[in-house]
Bifunctional ligase/repressor BirA (Filifactor alocis), 322 residues
Amino acid sequence: MCITVMKREIIDLLCQKEDYFISGEEMAEQLNMTRANVWKYIKELRNSGFEIESATKKGYILKSVGMQLNEDTIYYCFKKQDFVKNILFFSSIDSTNDFLKYNREEFPDHTLVVSTLQTKGRGRRTREFLSEEGGLYFSFMMRNTMNMQEVSFITSLAAVAVNRALLSLGIDTEIKWPNDIFLHDKKLCGILTEMVTDMEGYNKIIIGIGINISNGFPKELKEIAISLSEAGYQINEITFLLKLFSEFGILYKKFEQGDREEALRVLREKSYLMGKEICFLKDAVEQKGTVVGLEESGNLVVRLSNQNDIALNSGEVTILKK
């Protein structure tokens, strides 16, 4: 059994006892390991930020847990919520979306993969997504029972969840349709939603999110990208993730019941594009217009120069400079 699993089982035992000591002998017996190994894993958990008190003839008791981001603390912190069913943490990975895509048979629905560095991060249309150390990159997988129009709205739900999680931490952002979060007129966060099929024929939705926490940018991106630290904000990554998936879980449950009202309200109120003149491609033809609304489906409504309105259900838009 791998070290990660053993440490998680020790965390589970300590949590079960809560305010009571559990002896090393009892832990060793329940986990089928030596007391020396129990001590080794206790020591590793302490190094991860767990305050575990030990007493002769009593054993161990968990007093508190720090909030630094690592595989042990993130597992502990997500134990008490019910939307994320499984969580994996990597200090570095090629792509959190690709990891879930190519290993989807091995993990249950509602698995969350988190990393602080991606070596092959991707954005829409397979573009490179700069994912350097200092950012937070994560992907969430769930079973899809929706049609394509409904799937496209999942990105909007994720954007609203990010916006509300940040707002709860005192950071007011805007949502740039269809998949970006903006702060001070610069990109703070990107969202990539993909759909894949498993061996049993079920569709899976993988939602990938990357947010700039304290990372820097190359010269060519400094004018269009921003990090929270650059804007003067500091957040705890685990707190942010907990708030985000709490919000997403609530929004998704309402969405399954046919209720988009709250999500649409936020999308409209926090729209970065509303009232702006944009350039976009429609049927391979470049057009210009002014954003005037958002349909119930999540489609962007654009008013052309001839005063006709058209709806965009996907694609990229560019804001025209005045």
